[in-house]
Fold this protein.
Amino acid sequence: MSAEPLRIAVIGAGIGGLSAALSLRRAGFAVDVYEQAARLTEIGGGINMGPNAARILYRLGLGPGLDRDGVRPRGSHQRRWDDGRTLQQASLNPLCEALYGAPHLTIHRADLLAIIAAGFPAERIHLGHRLTGLADGTRGVAATFENGVQIRADVLVGADGIHSAVRAALFGEEAPRFAGCVAYRGLAPAEKIADLGLELGSQSWLGPGAHLVHYFVSRGRLLNFVGWTEHDSWNREDWTDRATVARALAAFEGWHPQVRRIIGAAETCFIWALFDRDPLPHWSVGHATLLGDACHPMYPFMAQGAAQAIEDGAALAACLAAEPDDPAASLRRYERLRLPRVSLLQQMSRANKTRYHLADGPAQQVRDAEWAKAGDRSPEALGWLFGFDAGAVEPLPAAS
Ligand SMILES: Cc1cc2nc3c(=O)[nH]c(=O)nc-3n(C[C@H](O)[C@H](O)[C@H](O)COP(=O)(O)OP(=O)(O)OC[C@H]3O[C@@H](n4cnc5c(N)ncnc54)[C@H](O)[C@@H]3O)c2cc1C
């Protein structure tokens, strides 16, 4: 690396931005993070961290926090919406660690964000900085913020989510589309559902036009649930729009008693609408690039959106470390490496929306028969996903 480390500005302090900042700092760069909000927040309950992302977080030294606050689900179990019949079932832990060197975790989003943030110097996270403009030049990027602050950086990384201002500045404005799905999200205190005798694992319930997933977070004290239903239109796209538990129960009317008990045990419930964008053919312009939902938002039906953002950060750090004297070339290499993998996951996540929501009938019976035979959620079947090491980037050939 050159004598002076590259100065890198990361826009957005979500899971993607902060984990990228940590990966980049560990690779020796001078990293600053700019976040529009006045404090670090993650809205919503839980999140799955597959071993592909958990491995990166452990390597970044975050193991003590993850072991303290995360849950290691013993398995995953997909069931029918009405009678609870098993569609497929797989072990997760400790198998994932044995196969892929890292566990599969479920964790509260706020805990995960706090754990990642604790690994990065607080004084280099600039809160209350909403990016409003950027200009790429021959020697770096200039950025301006709503509060009047102006900065220059050698590389700028837009990790500012699905409504990314960096993406709009680089590739033009384009509104995301409603994806026809709304989620009811809530947290049920474990003691209120203790009589269900749930194993420390993850369960998905699949039914006509809807599915519901639940798993433990917060050291097993809370059960997180997300219940998806299909809708033609939506006019508000705010995570924090309040829904009522009664509305969630009405949406899952007639479902298995376990599903209804879990929803009914929540004290509050959020409603969240799913939005989508067409894939971008490129993420980088000059010295600026994108990561996470800013460039590849995906339906959460492979539970990989944040995991892929974490992978992006590890790959970006490895590409820049391999070629620090030519950041623009490193960014092009980064997007070339990442695009095929995230595009595949975007497609698979979309396909799962259809597969998970089949009406009872012949297509659903074919799906259930296939799953009963082979299953597709086992760690062994997901080796291509869980075993992938995003930070392992081939060294560049030596210049002759
Ligand atoms: C219901 C649901 C369940 C999910 N489950 C999973 C799962 O189990 N596993 C998984 O891996 N993924 C899951 N995902 C996907 C995952 O939540 C997202 O992919 C991930 O959080 C995206 O992270 P990000 O950092 O790219 O963007 P964000 O989390 O959106 O962060 C963007 C940050 O940028 C800031 N920002 C925005 N604009 C500006 C600006 N102009 N200037 C400065 N800062 C700005 C924002 O305030 C925010 O802090 C799920 C998603 C949903 C909706």
